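Weekly modeling sync, notes
Attendees: S.R. (lead), two postdocs, one rotation student

Agenda item 3: backlog of single-chain predictions. S.R. asked that every request posted to the team notebook include the full sequence so nobody has to chase files. The rotation student volunteered to paste the first one in as an example of the format we agreed on. Action items at the bottom.

Example entry:
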Amino acid sequence: MRLEVKPYLLDFKFSARTSRGAMNDRKVWFLKVFDDAGVCGIGEVAPIHRLSPEEVDEIPLFLEHLTSRLAGIRKPQSEEEVFEAVSELVPMEIPSVRFGLEMALLDLMRGGEKRIFAEDFKTINIPINGLVWMGDEAFMKKQIREKLDAGFRCIKLKVGALDFDTELEIIKSLRKVSDDLIIRLDANGAFETNEVLFKLNELSKLNIHSIEQPIMPMQPEAMELICNRSEIPIALDEELIGINSSRDRVDLLQELKPQYLVLKPTLHGGFASVQEWIDLAQMHGIEWWITSYLESNLGLNAIAQFASRYPGNEEYHGLGTGGLYHNNITSPIVIDRGFFTYAESLVWGDVEG
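Predicted structure, as returned to the notebook:
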């Protein structure tokens, strides 16, 4: 097989803020893997500076080494062979490359038509949450109104950038819209351990579905206490980063006992790794949903097809990020009344670089 790497700079439509800082653009790398017949599978490598475990600046050098190593690998003929090949080529410490290479090889194996998992992705119809980014009060309220007008019945708000009282008032105004509206929160570790239970108690009065990562990861005693005492169900996200062995994953779930897992293939080691998290979550009675990691429409397409393999999971997935960029790859992806789906005419734009 032959690998070509195409860097691409995605340009946000606004300054995308979390409690860790703001992003105006982000660099991704498209992996184009060719077989001897000239068929091309495309994957996406999309780490985020300061959020992903790998050093973003080191990605080009690793991809250069990967190009020479992939030349001696036989084209996989099954999902199992794809996952085995990637596990040999890419360490778990570089999860974004594992995701990108899995995606490219799965696409190549199925003919290079962007059918990563789904046999017929025209029929995919996945309920998703509407994401409200941090910003000043007016900006957040504007986003909320847009999401409600667009028909979303599950709203996820990034919290932790404004003062707590202001955020509390924003959430109160959202709750007044409907008692049935599902409200999720994502703190990205913003709450201090000495105040987190007080804040969660105040927020619980507003019938919150869940809150992702209320405190910074790597505080197991504090997180165990929060999962046990919080009036709001806790969803682990960043807490899962770098937990790579099956034994360590089991230990984490048994120790912390979270109510939910938020699974991001780019961040948590690719599809095979996320599949293991799902299997372990189900064994321990933990609910889960799948979320994109601000990939382009190409990566988003692969993640949505993976999520579609679990029709019995009734949770809202986090797949509504395709409209964030001025220069996203043209795609047939459509968000319709809070559902992720595809337009009838399946037209994809070219990968530039």
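Discussion: group reviewed the output briefly. The chain has a mean pLDDT of 93.
Action items: rotation student to repeat for the remaining queue; S.R. to check formatting next week.
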